[in-house]
Amino acid sequence: MSAPPATRATAVGAGVAIVVAAVLAVLLVDHLRRPGPRPLFQLPVSCGETWRLSTYPGHDDFDVDLFPTEGESWGRPVLAAAAGTVTVSGVNGSLGGRTPENPRGPKGRGGGYWVKIDHGGQWETQYLHMLEPPLVEEGDEVAAGQQIGKLGSTGNSGAPHLHHEQRVGGEKVESWFGGEPSGITVDDEEVEIERTSANCP
Questions:
Q1: Phi/psi at 44 (nearest 5 deg)?
Q2: pLDDT of 91-114, one tens digit each?
Q3: Which of 13, 91, 154, 195 has the most crowded Cβ, counting Cβ within 10 A?
């Protein structure tokens, strides 16, 4: 014996509603997973300064080391490359013992004092090997160009410098500064490029 027409119509309507809800859920999840546009990242160092961007074999693809082209390295301001929210602020690995007073002290492990910033749209930046505990804490909202720490050589670092990474969806990508690619992609060979910071108020 078949179900009355009204019951069949109700069942069909419920089935259609379930399918529509499932499709909308898939579209919503896909939208949430899709990265937003790349923020206009700037060099994470003071306005107008020229720095050397470099990598070397074994450094890992897309990792950028920054060294000033003139003046003292220790203690230089490390700035947020773009506005965002601090998600990590602390120690990555171990600090070691390299300081301005003892630059050849024992190396630590990992990134030493570091900061990670969420810029929205699944974009993040990371800043490693800072001299002292960061000047920002987890949950802080930071502006582009705001100082977040000081350049140092904590962690697994051979000399004072800033290790910088840009990530989207958790994956490292080529760093861009001022709307232009850095040119540092793979670590097959040593690369050095000079760029001037436009991370200005």
A1: -85, 40
A2: 999 999 999 999 999 999 999 999
A3: 154
